[in-house]
Write a structure and sequence with these properties.
By secondary structure, this protein is α/β, with parallel strands linked by helices. The chain has one domain: L-arginine/glycine Amidinotransferase, Chain A. Helices cover 26% and strands 22% of the residues. It is built from 13 helices and 17 strands. The chain has a 4-stranded mixed sheet with strand order 1-5-6-7, with helices on both faces.
């Protein structure tokens, strides 16, 4: 059911990711020109992610007709597996951005309380700058998901990927100029016009613009979900490095300056928690040799991986955290995340390097569907019904 007008006009807004979910959506990787060794190692890690999340909330994995049986055989029985065609499996960016209704906005008890925004997608930059030249199947993913769930759809002509935004659920949105103001997305829109669209569709009142994303995140032109995210209202995690010779250092200091000199939509000064990046990590000759040189952006040996511990998924009562095989920083990340989310169990996903090799990580491959009605969420970022379980 397509909706006229904007989500805000209908009383919808995008909730914070720590608010309760009804399920998580994940695609299934297969294209050999992005996932090495015919995506076999990547599929193994996707299965780990789906299995881990399924212990805390329902999970639906979508796989092509050619891959459905393989996905079904690798996933636990409690994970639903649906057949769906796609160009690649980055559901954060191609799936719908779910929004929920404010309880006071619904006059009819039967009116849907959850809906989805179907942004326009152009493969992170279009024909000239994108990651692959044909994204026609990806353009249908959000619509298919919303039809499966029988949820209202807000079509949006603006090009935007879900990984380029983070919200606190209280009126504030985080993003980067490097991505949203890039001329390979919406060259005819000004910064003010993009802000207006974000406010109208996400129900936010203030946009905090970081200049750039993570160093090396060229595929997405600096998505925010590799660089910075909210922990709770007024608190953010920032990808950091102590190495002043690392190109990421300049970006991190630049972002820290912005974050320390702004307030959120409610006038709060932001607390910044530094989360050190791994490595640096680079694609090996063996890893690059396993990727077919076909239609997708080349994967070259020696390329620095856009690896970040900020790229995690918040499940109902758990943090599903990437681990890159860098023991020092893997352990430090788990410690920091445990302190930041004291009522969540931090679940390590070993081998997340495989997802980074293809250009993203756990947050990039997942899309949460919020639950309505929401339970009361305290400022530790977890619903009261989940606190009792931890």
């Amino acid at each position: 059911m397509d909706m006229d007008g904007t989500p805000s006009l209908h009383g919808y807004y995008m909730p914070a990711e720590w608010e309760p979910h009804s399920q998580c959506w994940i695609g299934w990787p297969e294209r050999p020109d992005n996932w090495r060794n015919n995506a076999v190692p990547g599929q193994s890690v996707f299965a780990k992610v789906a299995s881990a999340i399924s212990k805390f909330e329902p999970v639906t994995v979508c796989a092509s007709a050619a891959q459905w049986e393989k996905a079904r055989s690798q996933l636990p029985e409690n994970v639903r597996v649906l057949e769906m065609s796609m160009n690649d499996s980055w559901f954060r960016d191609t799936g719908p951005t779910f929004v929920i209704g404010r309880s006071t906005s619904f006059s009819c008890p039967a009116e849907p309380k959850v809906a989805g925004i179907d942004w326009t997608f152009n493969s992170w930059g279009g024909i000239d700058d994108g990651c692959y030249p044909d994204w026609s199947l990806d353009l249908l993913v959000a619509r298919k998901i919303l039809e499966i769930e029988k949820l209202p759809r807000f079509p949006q002509s603006m090009i935007l990927e879900g990984g380029s935004i983070h919200v606190d659920g209280e009126g504030t949105c985080l993003t980067t100029e490097e991505c949203l103001l890039n001329k390979n997305r919406n060259p005819d829109l000004t910064r003010e016009q993009i802000e207006d669209q974000l406010k109208a569709y996400l129900g936010v009142r203030k946009i905090i613009w970081l200049p750039r994303g993570l160093y090396g995140d060229d595929d997405t032109n600096g998505h925010i979900d590799n660089m910075c995210c909210f922990v709770k209202p007024g608190v953010v995690l920032l990808s950091w490095t102590d190495d002043e010779m690392d190109p990421q250092y300049e970006r991190a200091v630049e972002a820290l300056s912005v974050l320390c000199n702004t307030t959120d939509a409610k006038g709060r000064k932001l607390e910044v928690i530094k989360l050190h990046v791994p490595g640096p990590l680079y694609m090996t000759e063996e890893e690059a040799a396993g990727v077919s040189q076909d239609d997708a952006k080349p994967r070259l040996a020696g390329t620095r991986l856009a690896a970040s511990y900020v790229n995690f998924y918040i499940a109902n009562g758990a943090i599903i955290a990437p681990q890159f095989g860098d023991q020092k920083w893997d352990n430090e990340a788990v410690f920091v995340l445990s302190k930041a989310f004291p009522y969540h169990e931090v679940v390590r996903i070993e081998g997340a390097r495989e997802i980074a090799l293809a250009g993203g990580n756990i947050h990039c491959i997942t899309q949460q569907q919020p639950r309505f009605p929401h339970s009361i969420v305290n400022h530790d970022g977890i619903g009261a019904d989940n606190i009792a379980k931890t």
